[in-house]
Design goal:
This protein is of the alpha/beta class and 242 residues long. The protein folds into two domains: 116 residues, 3-Layer(aba) Sandwich (Rossmann fold), CATH 3.40.50.720; 109 residues, Rossmann fold. The chain has seven helices and twelve strands. The strands form two sheets. The chain has a six-stranded parallel sheet with strand order 3-2-1-4-5-12, with helices on both faces. A six-stranded parallel sheet has the order 6-11-10-7-8-9. The two termini are 13 Å apart. Bound molecules: NADP nicotinamide-adenine-dinucleotide phosphate.
Length: 242
Amino acid sequence: MPRLLILGGTSEAAELARLLAPKIDVVTSLAGRTTTPNGLPGAIRIGGFGGAEGLEAYLRAEQFDAVIDATHPFAARISAHAAQACAAAGLRLLALRRPSWLPIPGDRWIMADSMAEAARMLPSLGHRAFLAIGRQELGAFAGVTTVWLLIRLLAPETLALPEHQIVLGRGPFSLADETALLTEHGIKVVVTKESGGTATYAKIEAARTLSLPVLMIRRPPVVAGVEAVAEVAAAVGWVGRP
Ligand code: NAP
């Protein structure tokens, strides 16, 4: 039976494990940043591998046949490591990348190339901002002293940031709830990563409804030369190919 490693941490990775685990030997790898999802089929391993070399050693020791990198579009480091490790170990690698969001009429997007650039641009866009960018890169906003920040996190945290408030939440979010959140807090600008997917899209729709600008941080570039698909079904098909 083929043995597949899924690099996970996304809803697409979980969906892939659900579809493939009854048919083949599947191990899902998680970074361990958040609580482990319940009921994920197949085996689960948690924590970093120790760089590309560590991942290569793991792939060889565990005798995998193929790897699907189904990590978040902003998890660029593990994707680069996967490409390097699979090339070195001679394994097939597929990247499963959800499509980016695309602006539609009514959207007021301002694109930033990095979190640091977004932090520099923010004060000119509004004095009350909603930050829905996760926890790891919030430090980029430490020098933003003229904007009040509403920050959404998965779990409570003490942040070394100027005036801010934390709101806890885990997607999927509804348009009604996102609109109410932005209105209630008098938000003037929404800051988000260009993540794609449906679970967190409601904040984009809410901003459109309220005519608010969205400061959108562009995705990091994909690793050159790695075959990629956008849909879970296509990744399932890839596994079946010789
Ligand atoms: P990253 O910057 O690309 O990775 C940093 C390090 O974390 C990697 O070098 C690796 O450590 C370890 N790592 C990352 N993903 C792993 C995985 N699936 N299994 C085992 N180790 C992993 O990634 P990140 O942005 O911190 O994201 C971490 C995880 O959260 C990813 O699995 C991603 O799918 C998920 N996630 C990220 C975001 C986001 O916005 N970045 C959003 C939602 C979910 P070693 O070098 O020691 O191997």
